[in-house]
Amino acid sequence: MRILVVDDDRATRRQLVYIVKELPDLEVHEAGSQAEANALLERHTIDIALIDLRLNAADPDNRDGLSLVREVRARAATPIVVSGSDGMHDVREAMRFGAHDYILKEELSSDFVLPILKSLCSQRQLEKEVITLRSKRYPPPTDSLIGPSAAMQRLREILQRVSVSDRPVLVTGPTGSGKELAVRAIHALGGHPDQPFLDLNCGAFPESLIESQLFGHERGAFTGADRKQEGFFAAVRQGTLFLDEIAELPLELQAKLLRVLETRTYRPVGASQARTFEGRVVAATHADLEERVAKGQFREDLFYRLNVLEVTVPSLDERREDIPSLVAHFAAKQPRPLEFTATAVEILTNASWPGNVRQLRNLVDRLAVFTESRVTPELIASLPGRSKLKEAAPLSELVRAVLRLPDVDKMQLMTNALVDEAMRLSENNKTAAARLLGVHRKVVERYVSRAEYANGVDADD
Asked: PTM 4-aspartylphosphate: at which residues (predicted)?
């Protein structure tokens, strides 16, 4: 079992490592910064992380530790113990972001640290055993999660780990990336795959109808309620309730959903007695919920309650090496055998896919209509009813084209183009745009704020 200790103070870090090594059968890794920690996380699967929230003590506004907590949780739902000083606001915020426990620097000793770690080690060992047993009884639904890329391998690992828990899960990712497939995998890998899987699109129904769908209603509860109706909270039993497009849930119902998650009880419309909710809630959205919270469009307490476990589904641009496998998968599902030439696959691999996997699947479906068996570059180019695929030019060619421009700030021009395109591909989701760019979300926020100011737009509008 691997433990990661992250602290910029070498003496404190060494003290923590000394304490951790009192436990048997542990492999301990050390990092003195967020960058070092990220490098280790790329190379190793970490079972438990101990993270100092002030990774740069000289800068009181530094939030690298809190940022690292969120990154680690997003990678594989890794249990995290944070360390900080008494009264630190960041400790409370880290707990809301999913940290398991905290250690005060003033109480750094074996008596306080070891009991927490022993409990987490036992929990992680049990999770691994459960995953192994379930995978033997219920083979993982890998047929729907196609691709050998590192991003997909990480996604499959995260899905296995979050499926062990019965706590709420928030699945994020751009439109068409496959969020529902991830949710179905969580259900299939979970403790009750034989129980119902029910899904509700929160943006597809009026508020009154959504409430009745979720909670159910008694006969005579409102005009037109001529019979008693069971809601999703009851019908799902011990299964999975999938709330798609959770960002569109009306604020009044957000408060009621929060109460269900906190109390595990609900009351059908018109009923006098509360009932027990036995299932699990998994929510999904392509929207930036943090931004919605800041604008008062989504409840902050519900966001933190749903975001206990987060799963981020990558865009197709983040996993281009999966495109040949996806093409072969969709081609095999056609009524007639469909074969792509190597050049045709290369064209699809290099194309831009703003609609992600859904767009690629639809293209393969359409190609199957216009050919007997073989897909060539000429067929792709002549496909009616759509514009030509946009192929990314080689990087060196793009750079030379920019350098040939007249007297302009070419560095700023490229930065603007990169951020603007990332925001477009992610449908203005700053978190997703930052992931595409390989930078922290704050970098994108600063750029957007400067751009809005330069254009005379009030950032609060």
From this structure: 52
Evaluate if residue 139 carries a pLDDT over 70: no
Note whether 425 and 174 are within 8 A (CB): yes
In whole angstroms, give the CA distance from residue 210 to residue 200.
8
Average pLDDT, integer, range 203-218: 84
Candidates 85, 53, 46; CA nearest to 69 is: 53
Most confident of 120-129, 218-227, 277-286: 277-286
pLDDT at 204 exceeding the cut of 50? yes
Q: How far apart are CA 276 and CA 322, in angstroms?
A: 43
Distance of CA 165 to the CA centre of its chain: 16
For residues 364 and 351, the answer to whether their CB atoms sit within 8 Å is no
Q: Is 134 helix (H, G, I), strand (E, B) or coil?
A: helix
Closest CA to 127 of 99, 101, 163: 163
Average pLDDT, integer, range 318-330: 93
Q: Is 73 exposed, middle or buried (0-12, 13-18, 19+ CB in 10 A)?
A: buried
